[in-house]
Structures are given as C-alpha cells and as structure tokens.
Amino acid sequence: MMIRSGDAALHVRDEGPRDGPVVLFANSLGTDLRVFDALVAQLPPDLRIVRYDKRGHGLSDLTPGPYTIDMLSDDTIAICETLGLRNVTFVGLSIGGLIAQSFAIKRPDLTQALVLMDTAAKIGTAESWGERIAALSEGGIAAISDGILPRWFSPAFLGSPEASQWRNMLERTTLEGYIACCHALAAADLTEGCTQITCPAMAIAGALDGSTPPELVAETAKLCHATFHIVEDAGHLPCVEKPEAVAALITDFLEKTRHD
Ligand SMILES: O=C(O)CC1=CCC(=O)O1
C-alpha cells in the first residue's frame, strides 16, 4: 500500500494480525524493506509487522533533497497515524536507527520500545559524508559500492552468490534519494536527544560492522540505557547475514517488554 506523508507517497507493507503487538521497521541507506525479509520470516506469527521504504528508496516517491532525520521520522509518524498504530516497538537499522531515535524522542506516547541495530546517535562526520556525496556526484552509486559492501558483510558472505542481490539493491537505489539521505546523516547528531529516551531499548551490532562498529553502537546504547548485544560473523546488516540470531534477540526482547 501507499501512505501519504507531506509531499511523498510512501510504500508500506503491513503484515500480521491487526490486533498483534506492533513492530515497525526502518531500513538503512541504499536498501529497501526487503532487507528485513529473512528476519521477519523468523519472528513470531502473532506480531503486526509494518515495514516501509524511505523516500527515494524502493517503491516510495523520490522527493527533492536534502532530507533531514526530522523529516524522515515525520514520515514514520504519518505511517503510524494513518494505520492507527500505538505501542510501537521500533526496529531501526543504521539511518533507520536514527529515524527510530528521533521518533521515540518526538513521540514517546507512541513508543513502546526501541531496537537499535547497527546504528548510533551520530554516524560519521559532516566531512566523511561530504566526501561520499562528492564521489557519488562524480561517479554515481556504482563508484562507491565496492567500498560499501565489505562494510555490510563478512568476507564469507561477500564471497557467496547471495551477495550480488544486495549490490544490485544498493546500485539500483536512486542517486538523488541516496544523496538526500547522506545529507540527513551529515547533519544528524542525536547525542543529546537520545539521553531523553526512557522506553526499554536494545542495541545490536554485527561484530564485523565496518560502518557503525560495535564500540560506536555500544556508546549510543549507554546513552539511552539500552542493553547491548553483538552478533558474531556479521557485518553492518546482521538481519541479512544472521537473521536467526537477530530474530532470537528481538523475540526475547519483545517478551520482556510486552507488558511494560
Ligand atoms: O553505507 C554505509 O556506510 C552504511 C550506512 C551508514 C548509514 C546507513 O544507513 O548505512
């Protein structure tokens, strides 16, 4: 289905029983909602699982950039309001984790719990994102994908035939949407804001994550009093590489937070 948020129509997938506990997923830069396919397949069937594509990604509209994390989290609020979602457990991967933090800060009334996957209150620097935007402007996404994939995946996964679908997903993201999100990442610093988060939170990091390394994820976990877990033999996208391990962590966390 498509849900309107301001000037954009967002591609949303809403699965599971209408009255089930709500789990909302936000994906990372250069991926769409399919990044959670393997993980979602391992979660309990009684959950209402809502996924969407960020602006400029997947089947959502591409609107003019630059974007901000505030704007991207407003999109998730629009999805919740349109679908009437309450008591949301928000699972955010990378930039999706910044969106989840921003959502929890702005709408504690809607937030039951947070799962922060391979993310941080601040990812990279304005300088590093500026360099990436310059490379993208010159050569497109194909010019940077060889550098990105070894941060996303372990060497073993990268050498498997499975890896090429994720390269394809990355390289088929619209250049404008990708760059618009890089601007959001360059400007985002939720270091202060995330100390205001009071709901139960859990942080997860792939042991081999080359984009948001475990130490960085652990720092943010401390700021928002989240428990912290490492997923072995996985890079930046543990939901792709180790879906069973991530599903076990989330299922256990949902059990513990369900009645809070
Ligand atoms: O592209 C990367 O380096 C990984 C990444 C950073 C923010 C995000 O969403 O993905």
Q: What does this 3D model show about the protein?
A:
The chain has 260 residues and is an alpha/beta fold. The protein has one domain (2-258): Rossmann fold. Helix content is 43%, strand content 18%. The chain contains eleven helices and eight strands. The chain has helices at 37-40, 69-83, 95-106, 126-139, 142-152, 155-158, 163-172, 175-187, 214-223, 238-241, 243-257; strands at residues 2-5, 8-15, 22-26, 48-52, 88-93, 111-117, 201-206, 227-231. Strand 5, helix 3 and strand 6 (111-117) form a beta-alpha-beta unit. The longest helix has 15 residues, at 69-83. Bound molecules: ligand LWBT4IAB. Residues 28-30, 94-95, 123, 148, 151, 185, 211, 236 line the site of the ligand O=C(O)CC1=CCC(=O)O1. It comes from Martelella mangrovi. InterPro entries: AB_hydrolase_1, AB_hydrolase_fold, AB_hydrolase_sf, PcaD/CatD. This is 3-oxoadipate enol-lactonase. Residues 23-248 form the AB hydrolase-1 domain.
Reconstruct the topology from this structure.
Elements: E1 2-5, E2 8-15, E3 22-26, H1 37-40, E4 48-52, H2 69-83, E5 88-93, H3 95-106, E6 111-117, H4 126-139, H5 142-152, H6 155-158, H7 163-172, H8 175-187, E7 201-206, H9 214-223, E8 227-231, H10 238-241, H11 243-257
Parallel strand pairs: 3-4, 3-5, 5-6, 6-7, 7-8
Antiparallel strand pairs: 1-2, 2-4
Count of the separate structural domains? 1
Profile the largest sheet. Answer: 8 strands, mixed
The computed structural class is alpha/beta
Percentage of β-strand residues: 15-25%
CATH superfamily, please?
Alpha/Beta hydrolase fold, catalytic domain
CATH fold call: Rossmann fold
Multimerization state: single chain
Helix content: 40-55%
Distance between the termini: 31 Å
Rounded to an integer in angstroms, the radius of gyration calculated over CA atoms is 17 Å
What's the overall geometry?
Answer: globular
| Number of E-type strands | 8
Number of helices: 11
CATH architecture: 3-Layer(aba) Sandwich
Protein name: 3-oxoadipate enol-lactonase
Domain AB hydrolase-1: 23-248
